[in-house]
Amino acid sequence: MYLHLGNDTIIRKDDIIGIFDLESSTISHRTRKFLSDAEKKGIVVNVSTELPKSFVLCREKDEERIYICQLSPVTLIKRASQINFPGD
User: Fold this and answer.
1) CA 36 to chain CA mean position, Å
2) What pairs with residue 20 in β-bridges?
3) Cβ-proximal residues to 52 (8 Å cutoff; 6+ apart), any chain
4) What is the Cα–Cα distance from 9 to 32, expressed in whole angstroms?
5) pLDDT digits over 31-65, tens only?
6) CA 38, CA 64: separation in Å to the nearest integer?
7) 68 neighbors 55 (Cβ within 8 angstroms)
8) pTM of the model
9) For position 80, what pLDDT does the model report?
10) Could you give the CA distance from residue 10 to residue 1 in angstroms, rounded to a whole number?
11) What DSSP letter does each residue of 17-49 carry, written as one string?
């Protein structure tokens, strides 16, 4: 199944490694460096037209990708949990 991140961007739920709050997670120097390095590698996709609130770390076909999103992590997690698989 898929998760809609906004601005016509959807990702496979199975590709999600983690959903993170941008404000609280970037307090850490390591997270800021991780995001900075990812930006330099060109694996960051900004799907936000407003102030970003979260980032979603994914593994797509053996490649990492980070989506910067204007939706809160709570909203994204709720959306992801509403996706039902056959047999659930």
Assistant:
1) 15
2) 55
3) 22, 46, 68, 69, 70
4) 24
5) 999 999 999 999 999 998 899 999 999 998 889 99
6) 9
7) yes
8) 0.87
9) 85
10) 10
11) EEEEEHHHHTTSHHHHHHHHHHHHHT-EEE--S
pLDDT score, position 79: 86
Position 29: which residue type?
Answer: H
Contact 87, 12 (CB under 8 A): no
Beta bridge partners of 69: 54
Read off the DSSP letter of residue 87: T
How far is the C-alpha of 66 from the C-alpha of 48, rounded, in Å? Answer: 12
DSSP 85: -
Pairing of strands 9-12, 44-46: unpaired
DSSP state of 14: G
What span, in angstroms and rounded, lies between the C-alpha atoms of 63 and 85?
A: 25
